[in-house]
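Hi there,

I know you've been waiting on this one. I reran it after we fixed the sequence typo, so this is the corrected version. Both the input and the resulting structure follow.
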Amino acid sequence: MSLIGEKIAYAHWDESQKPWVIQGIHFDHGVLFRAKYKGYFYSAVVENGALVLKNRRFTSPTAAAFSITRQTHMDGWCFWECKLPEHDQWVPMSDMKYPTGFEPGFIL
């Protein structure tokens, strides 16, 4: 299953719902997330203060990633992409945490 080229529809947008706030970064209710793992796309959505994946609520991107991969070393910030209302394309979630595109410890 591929999401590439598909029209993206946000979940019901409701400003009264809580955003998902992780490490000081806000993702509004209805923001979509996706990840590709072992050839499959997985999708999640922000719903009332949490990331919801397969009807399960997660408060961290790493916990949601672990539910798919079962890998304890997985960094959820590097696993997920998000579709923000102000962007036309999917954006790596890590771009929100590391806006320069470099993770801590990266040496040029």
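Quick highlight: The radius of gyration is 14 Å.

Best,
R. S.
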